[in-house]
Design a protein that fits this description.
- By secondary structure, the protein is mainly alpha-helical.
- It is built from 4 helices and no strands.
- The protein is elongated.
- It starts with a helix and ends in a 5-residue tail after the last helix.
């Protein structure tokens, strides 16, 4: 039973590390700030979740499980907030050439019909 849990924990650790590696490659390779934000926000969140679950399964102590849970909660709280702030800053500072229109500018100007 213990070796099966170790195998599952190892697979989760490798899977999480692979997702974080792919996110780093995405941030490095993508040209647009919004694509880089997407790569930096989506994959690492799932990667950290998988790594925390793998650590909790492999160590199997209460302290490791609680610490892993706190890391995941912190990532799930701070990741979207940081990405939102980065996106809003990029919107304000960089020239925008949106294909489908600029809903934020229309909303801020009060031109949106709800």
């Amino acid at each position: 039973m213990n070796s099966a849990v170790d195998v599952i924990a190892g697979v989760l650790l490798v899977f999480g590390a692979g997702l974080i590696l792919l996110a780093g490659v995405g941030v490095w390779r993508f040209d647009d700030i919004y694509a880089r934000m997407h790569a930096a926000a989506k994959a690492p969140t799932l990667g950290i979740l998988a790594i925390a679950l793998g650590v909790a399964l492999s160590v199997q102590t209460v302290v490791a499980t609680v610490t892993s849970l706190l890391v995941v909660v912190l990532q799930l709280v701070t990741g979207p907030v940081g990405t939102h702030l980065l996106g809003r800053s990029a919107y304000r500072r960089l020239p925008n050439d949106f294909d489908a229109g600029d809903e934020l500018a229309a909303d801020e100007a009060g031109d949106v019909d709800h």
